[in-house]
Amino acid sequence: MKRFLINITYFLIICALVLTIVSEGVLLKRNYLSMNLSFSHILDRVYRSESKMPSDTLYLGDSVAEQFFSFYENKNSLTINGAVLLSGQYILLKNSLRKNPQITNVYLILNPTSLKQSFSNPRTYNNFVKPFFNFKNINNINPLIFKKLKSKPYSMLSFLSLFKVLPISDIMFNEDGKENLSLFSDVNFEYFQMIFHLCKNNNVSLSLISTPVSCKNQNLIDGFFNDLNEDEQQFMEILNKYKKSIIYLEDFCFIDDLHLTSETLSRKKYLYKSLILNFE
Amino acid sequence: MLFNTIDFAVFLPVVFILYWFVFNKNLKLQNFLIVASSYFFYGWWDWKFLGLIAFSSIIDFSTSLYISSTQSKKKKKAALFISIFTNIGILAFFKYFNFFLDNLNTAFAFFGQNISSDSLSIVLPVGISFYTFQTLSYTIDVYRNDLIPTKDFIAFSAFVSFFPQLVAGPIERAKNLLPQFYKSRNFVYSNAVDGLRQILWGLFKKVVIADNAAVIVNDVFGNYSSYSSSLLIIGAVLFAFQIYGDFSGYSDIAIGTSKLFGFTLMTNFNFPYFSRDIAEFWRRWHISLSTWFRDYLYIPLGGSKGGHFQKIKNTFIIFLVSGFWHGANWTFIFWGLFNAILFLPLMLLKSNRLNMDVVAYKSFFPSVKEFLQMLLTFFLTTLAWVFFRSDTIGDSFKYLANIFKPVKILASSDIFLYFGKHSKIIFPLVIVFIIIEWMFRKKDFVLDGLNLKYKLNWAVYIFIVFVIIYSGKFNQTEFIYFQF
Question: Where are the domains of chain B?
Fold first, then answer.
């Protein structure tokens, strides 16, 4: 028995070491993660945010924004899936500003439903926790996120690179109690404030702009803005501009109530793009 | 609890340590720990159904004691009837009630009569077909005087609920497993290492082969009407590997886990896709179920003795019942029927026991004849799997009809286009998997007795762990056979 336990322990240690070296040195560093493409795509954004970008303007946003400001077509775009939450957007922004002091304009382009995305979204683990929860970013992870992670403690293992390459993509985090914020989820609101202050402290102009929204959701979206709570009302100016930036389109323009059809995009992409950018 | 989850990765070492370090002084305590941990293991899925296992255990424990204590043949028969009625009754209610009701409705509707009977929303308890068959075999063995009933209820409960094989087998015989609960167990290093090897290979089969194949299989079977014949063939072939990887992977993990606790379970799969005919396939596939039906149904019915009619009747009965055991759907019954049709000619020509040895035993490569035989057998079993996998009989026939339309040869790029990243990984993996299985076909399982120089064994294990971690799927996909 003693021999068995010793050998098992040795085996697990060697395994962990070898796999950590391979994960850290090859898989993550070179982004060889073809079995988990959504994670791989997010790492692409993370790596770009840590490198020089050729512009004074930065586009951040969700997957709908990605339809207008494609990451692969725009060297100054970090548009990404909405499940990274504003916490992920904050870290991308912070990295970018550190490496690119020339940036003076930041466009944060989000569908209103992305503001509402909560931590309990099943893709949060794959899209935010795995790529962003690491030693480098530990100071950017606030206590609220730690509290959420504690609802599934083993998710914290993804701090180690070995666990990041595991093809586990969905973990359902428990949310304690009801969402008490009307427009933003709790995590998103905390990080929205942090994004706001980060831009202010760096003398960067922040524009929060909406992607087009389906007509049938107009009442729902209006409801979000009618019920703004006290904390959110501190940001009335930027939120009012955000509300005005919403362009409502007919239902048939959308694939899934959120993303635009390729036909709509091929006809009107550049028009909407310029409307978004010249909104103010 | 599923074997391919973090929950089990925590559960197993905890039970292992308690078993060998805390409860090791007393056999009864060890057995009690097995019962408690098995109930915990099952209750992790749904504690409400624990009562069923306990009830089934109590019924079979008490009826068997009664059978052995009474001299009256009538009373023995009555007790056996109670046991069979209870076990089959539980199974019938939970698994087949809605099936019978729906078919009754359809039959009445066919004759223009509408009867109002709504299906009940019955949840099928996981593993019910496995543990009811296991307890049933115990009572039947006692009735036949093949086994002396135990008076140790804890040992009996441990036999019924033993967690490694509780929910998907192997369906153990009391004659093999129960006596192991009477004897004190000693930790044997080589057995434990063997167990870990088998667990490792089982996990590989499940999370790498089966679950990656499932992505494509689900897509193809879900949209078969819009796919070309080539893609349908790929879907059917991959399902053959999915179900093999899934179920034999589970069996490997179950057998390996049992070895860690000092138990030996029966072999459940013996490289079935290297069979040279259907009869050999059935001697190598789900062995614990095939032999169960052989011993408790086929032989009591008269087996292959008697005239041709008797043989044909018994063959059809056993395959149809086997199909029905798999699920309350006509697809399974048809799958059984199809296998009976494939098996029957071999039996009538008395060539069903031609291939009893391991293929190409004395050489590495098979002869051309053996190769073609294996290919044909694989083709036939894959055809049968189409019935097994389809949602309805109609879907199975449409799927097969689409397969036999003129074949359009696809370029590999087309396959990648259809199935994306998974096709890039699953096809090379399946080929490597076949080669490795072929290399170990004379052993009990892949990695059995692996003994390379300079600790290279460890390099092999680490590589497999790496492949499991990097290309396996861990999104809590259930084992296919759980539903049975």
Answer: 6-185, 190-276+355-483
